[in-house]
Amino acid sequence: GTRNAVLDQRDATFVPHVLPIAKGTQVRIVNRDKTYHNVFSLSKVRKFNIGRRPTGEEVPVDFDKSGEVQVFCDIHSNMSAIILVLDNPMFVQPNDEGLFEMKNIPPGQYTVNAWHERLNSTPKQVTVRAGEIVTVNFDFQ
Fold it and tell me: Rg of the chain's alpha carbons, rounded to an integer?
């Protein structure tokens, strides 16, 4: 079925700031503030402009191409978010300590990428074997 994700607006902030989704996902953009917001993107991956929306209004936007989509509000210039559209659903967001865990990965060879808004890291080659735990560490520059 259709995968769903939500990009909230709370206290003139996008929540979450980085929203990873798989290609083919519909993102519901929701205004939880008492003020109007106008959410838009000029990204090549997905251009959209949902117009000025009042409190509680939800607008669905589909994402069918992978890449980074920078999102802004034309009313509040300090508001920004990134929708990270990924080629497959095998992704996870790290916790506040930077730790992450992926479960139920089929055995095989994988290339694991780590993404950060301002830093870069080298992809890691990983072999997953049944019943084993694999640890992957990323260095960011």
Answer: 17
Q: Residue 35 and residue 57: Cα distance in Å, rounded? A: 11
pLDDT band per the 50, 70, 90 thresholds, residue 1: very low
* Rama region for 90: left / alpha / beta (φ>0; ψ in -120 to 50; rest): beta
Classify residue 107 as left (phi > 0), alpha (psi -120 to 50) or beta.
beta
pLDDT of 3 higher than 80: no
Q: From CA 111, how far away is CA 124, in angstroms rounded?
A: 6
CA distance 56 to 133: 43
Kindly report the CA angle at 113 between 5 and 89, in degrees rounded to 5? 35
Q: How many residues does the chain have?
A: 141
pTM: 0.88
Mean pLDDT value across residues 56-64: 95
Say whether the peptide bond before residue 89 is cis (omega within 30 degrees of 0): no
118 vs 116: CA distance, rounded Å = 6
Burial bucket for residue 68 (CB in 10 Å: 0-12, 13-18, 19+): middle
